[in-house]
Amino acid sequence: MKLKTKILLLACMAGIGLYAQDSIPITVSNPANMLCLRCHGKRWYTYANQDSSQVIKHKMFKDLIIDTVAFYHNNHKSLTCSDCHSTEYSNLPHKPDLKLEPLLICVDCHTDTDDVPPINFTGITEEYKKSVHATRKGSGVTCWSCHNPHTYNITTRSKDNLSHVVAYDNSICLECHSGMGKFDILYGDPKSSLIAKHHWLPDPVKHFRNVRCIECHAEIREDVLVAHNIRPKEEAVRKCAVCHSTDSRLKHSLYKYQLAQERSGKGILSSIISNQTFAIGTNPSPLLNLISLAILALAVMGIAIHTIIRIIKK
User: Fold this and answer.
1) pLDDT band at 131 (very low <50, low <70, confident <90, very high)
2) Where a domain ends, among 54, 83, 103?
3) Whether residues 91 and 150 fall in one domain
4) pLDDT (tens digit, 9 = 90+) per residue, 40-94?
5) Quick one: CA dihedral 151, 152, 158, 162, positive or negative?
6) CA–CA separation, 102 and 108 (whole Å)
7) How many domains does the chain have?
8) CB-based burial of residue 146 (10 Å sphere; 0-12 exposed, 13-18 middle, 19+ buried)?
9) 5-8 long-range CB contacts below 8 Å, 24 or more apart?
């Protein structure tokens, strides 16, 4: 199979299960948004020429089209358009200077949370400002470059479906870094295939399916749930033992939320045991952990009974 075909398959896999999050209630529509979506929810829009009363039909610029199904499944589905955009957009036609309206960023609305562990939006902003996305001259990368406010679904706070977390988060990176054209257009720097650039990995495709790009390409900060300080490629992790070891890097990144939930819900002893039986690259199995503990308990019990019997016979 050709390398670019593999990348396409990975990108398609990332979309599978996007709307399978049962925890997200389905909203059919919000009447407050109908005026905007009447035009921005379609490929074509019409308006009446005030001078001639002629109905004009135009094709909507693709970046201004809102997928209404995706919008009413995303994390911002309860918001109205005017919560983020100027109320003056309700006047038709729109004033040209509204295009100069500064876009909101995450911390304009989001504050730090009481989740375990907390998302820490302030820390994310600080880390982003140090990343290559912010410091590279002319990159133009903002929050919205990766997190489309009209379709974004947070997946990080999931401890049951890590494969979906990996696929969804990696699909964000693949939007620019798949080596299939968009990166070239942005920076005029032709890139070879993504898989070819990771040839040193024993099985690049398997890694892409089981860990996120940021596991190796971002600097980890313990008080930030998801790393946003993307480092230059020269600083990427290349040592297998960094992840495949007892104190795996993945415990401080991909598995951070899962382990924090176990510590808060089951106590320190349980978390220590869980950490020691963690299978790197896969989701841990509570059943296997329980079986392991049962076998250990039986072994200790057998030794204790044997020792007692020996003492009695003496």
Assistant:
1) very high
2) 103
3) no
4) 998 998 888 777 778 888 899 988 899 988 899 888 888 899 998 998 988 887 8
5) positive
6) 12
7) 2
8) middle
9) 6/195, 6/205, 7/174, 7/178, 7/179, 7/180, 7/193, 7/194, 7/195, 8/180
For residues 153, 159, 162 and 166, what is the CA-based torsion angle, rounded to 10 degrees?
Answer: 40
Can you say whether residue 117 is alpha, beta or left, with left for phi > 0 and alpha for psi between -120 and 50 degrees? Answer: beta
CA distance 205 to 193: 12
What is the helix (H) or strand (E) element at residue 165, kind and residue range? helix 162-177
Tell whether 125 and 93 lie within a shared domain.
Answer: no
Domain shared by 95 and 110, yes or no: no
Whole-angstrom Cα distance, residue 136 to residue 159? 34
Shared domain check, 172 and 65: no
182 in a structural domain: yes
Q: Give this prediction's pTM.
A: 0.67
Query: What amino acid is encoded at 79 in this protein?
Result: L
pLDDT tens, residue by residue, 181-238: 555 545 555 455 777 888 888 888 888 888 999 999 999 998 888 999 999 999 999 9
Q: Is the pLDDT of residue 285 over 70?
A: no
> Would you state the structure tokens that stand for residue 296, as one six-digit string?
């250990």
- As a whole number of angstroms, the distance between CA 183 and CA 141 comes to 12
Angle at 100 between CA 172 and CA 142, to 5 degrees: 20
Q: Hunting for tokens 């989001």 — which residue is that?
A: 110
306 lies in a domain?
no
Which residue range forms the structural domain that includes residue 34? 27-72+74-103
DSSP SS3 for 41? coil
Structure tokens at 70: 């995706």
Rounded CA gap, 232 and 218, in Å? Answer: 9
Cα separation, 41 vs 260, whole angstroms: 40
- Give yes or no: residues 227 and 173 share one domain: yes
